[in-house]
Amino acid sequence: MMRMGVDLGGTKIELVALSDEGNELFRKRVTTPRDYQGTLAAVVNLVKEAEATLGEQGTVGVGIPGVVSPYSGLVKNANSTWINGHPLDVDLGELLQREVRVANDANCFAVSEAVDGAAAGASVVFGVIIGTGCGAGVAINGKVHGGGNGIGGEWGHNPLPWMTKEEFNTTRCFCGNPDCIETFISGTGFVRDYNAALTAAGTVRTAAKSGADIMLLVDEGNAIAVAAFDRYMDRLARSLAHVINMLDPDAIVLGGGMSNVAAIYPRLPALLAHYVVGRECHTPVVQNLYGCSSGVRGAAWLWEK
Length: 305
What we know:
This protein is of the alpha/beta class. It has helices at residues 36-54, 88-96, 105-116, 181-185, 187-201, 211-220, 223-246, 264-275, 294-300, and strands spanning 3-8, 12-18, 24-31, 59-64, 67-68, 75-76, 100-104, 124-130, 134-140, 143-144, 251-255, 285-287. Helix 1 crosses helix 2, helix 6 packs across helix 7 (223-246) and helix 7 (223-246) packs across helix 8.
């Protein structure tokens, strides 16, 4: 059976069609129209083009930067704000004349890596996207665990665990709460922390624009950058230990820009063991296999084998 996955982002909509074996049959992306009806039309046109090209009909799954409320049936919390308040799965289903499954894009990432990615075969997978923001999703036996409120995996909007007095009440998240995990361990949070330390030191060095900028300085042995990365690693370990203490997943998969920092992986095990209850931890924390394609593949795998 052909499975089509759609990644509905704020700037682009991408569709991929997969075979039963997970082989890519078709891929195309278009610019996202910034209105609801235009977005529906763009998804429908991509599906029709894929099916016309391949000569067969398939299932459709869609990953969105938000969730469909299990209570109202309407999209909420999407930063592509024009889809909020609409029954996206129902409207697409009517236009395509079939059931359409919609899930949060971080959940799609977790599903992708659990089905045939870096955590293939693991029963419980926690997928983390640490880039501009910080999203996460849970896959159990290759399926999304959305939860009763549809917000399963929204761990980035819990407070940073075991905060020091220097960290407490120092950040404000877009969600309205202070000191969310996202504000510390996202790439944005890493840059914020480094630049604040740079200012405090009174140095004339140019502020960093990305985590990659800081890691170049770490490689050079720059003391401010090294200290910022040490703080980042400790905060990441605290945040993931919090997950392990609650969920104890079989594997944790990292995605997003910060997942490309190779120095993270050898350092994490000892740091995790320091915070996990019992001081024992052998949970694999691995880099994703499919990179920026993982979300769209996971949307396709919303229709499981």
